[in-house]
Every structure is written in C-alpha cells, then in structure tokens.
Design brief:
188 residues; single chain; globular; 7-stranded antiparallel β-sheet; TATA-Binding Protein; alpha+beta; 20% strand; 4 helices
C-alpha cells in the first residue's frame, strides 16, 4: 500500500531536497546553513533569461539539482556565490547564512537588477520585486521548516552582518581568555 504524503510533509520533503542540493553546491556544512528568499510575483522564462543576461559580467552557470525549477549559480570576481531559481510564482535566491560577503555583494545586486528590469516591463501589473510578499525560509535547529514574512532586503543583509559580528566578537573574547590563561601559566 502506498502511503500518501500530507501537503505539509510533501512540502517539507521538497524543501529538504532543495536545501541539501544548495548546501552541496555552495559548500555549506549542512542544509541548516542555507536560507531562501522567495519573491512572490508571477513571471515568465523570458524574464529570467533577461536577468541572466544582465548578470553576465559575473560567472553564471546553470546547475542541476532538486531545485523545483531551473537554477543558476552566480559567482562574483571574489568567488562569492549564491543560487537563483526560476519559478512561475517568482524568483528564489538561495545562499549560505554565514557567508556574509556573498549576501552583501550578490543579493542586493540581483534584487536591484530585477527591480530595474521589472520597472521597465509592461504590463504595469507586474510591479516591483517583492510586492507579492517577500518570504524568508530556512530549517530550524529542530529540523522544522520555518517560513516567515521577511523584512526588506537591506534589513536582511544588516541582520546577517550583525550576527556574524556577534559570532566574531565571542570568538575574539574566547581567544583573549585563552591567551591570558597561557600567559598566567607561563609566568607562574
């Protein structure tokens, strides 16, 4: 007997596959290191081809995997990478949470290029990137899929920078304590 998945279980299974593929492609430690920004606004394949053309000064490579859509890895001159995925319901950006340089350098570029392109397209109902609702998606420590409304892209970038700053500050404090302990052992 074939067991039918609930819509929630089916959705989680698809996200697990997508995040695992992204983690492998972006060299993340685990799928929990991946975060997705999903921009809800219907679009066509032609729109994505225009976006890829606009991003072509960077390295743009179509990639294979369980992304539930056509996917490209975008890499800048400093080897920072993210993944964009084509969906009929809107663009998705996948990135490594701890890779602040990728988030700072690539996410705003993609958002700005997309907004500029969409502002010039007609019909006017297409609107700007994110008017259909920006969603942030990730897996929590308990393995639960977290989907929530996201703040503006600039706030997301700032949040990741501040989180990385906090981690680095804690690591520096720990190293300073270790050095102090070693000095005390050597002098005593």
């Amino acid at each position: 007997m074939i067991r039918k998945l609930t819509p929630e279980a089916w959705r989680k299974r698809n996200f697990l596959a997508k995040f695992k593929a992204a983690a492998a492609e972006l060299n993340a430690v685990s799928l929990r290191d991946i975060e997705s920004l999903k921009f809800r606004n219907s679009t066509s394949s032609h729109d994505y081809q225009d976006l890829i053309t606009e991003l072509s000064p960077m390295e743009v490579v179509e990639i294979q995997g369980d992304y539930q859509g056509k996917a490209w890895k975008i890499t800048d001159a400093n080897d920072n990478s993210i993944i964009i995925v084509e969906h009929e319901t809107g663009l998705e950006i996948l990135y490594v949470v701890g890779a602040v340089a990728s988030i700072i350098s690539l996410v705003p570029i993609i958002v700005n290029v997309w907004n500029t392109m969409r502002a010039h397209w007609s019909p006017p109902h297409r609107g700007h990137f994110g008017t259909g609702g920006l969603e942030r998606r990730r897996f929590g420590k308990n393995g639960k899929l977290i989907e929530e409304p996201a703040p503006p892209t600039e706030a997301i970038v700032l949040q990741h920078v501040l989180n990385q700053y906090d981690k680095l500050s804690k690591r520096i404090s720990s190293l300073e304590a270790d050095v102090s302990e070693l000095k005390n052992k050597l002098s005593g």
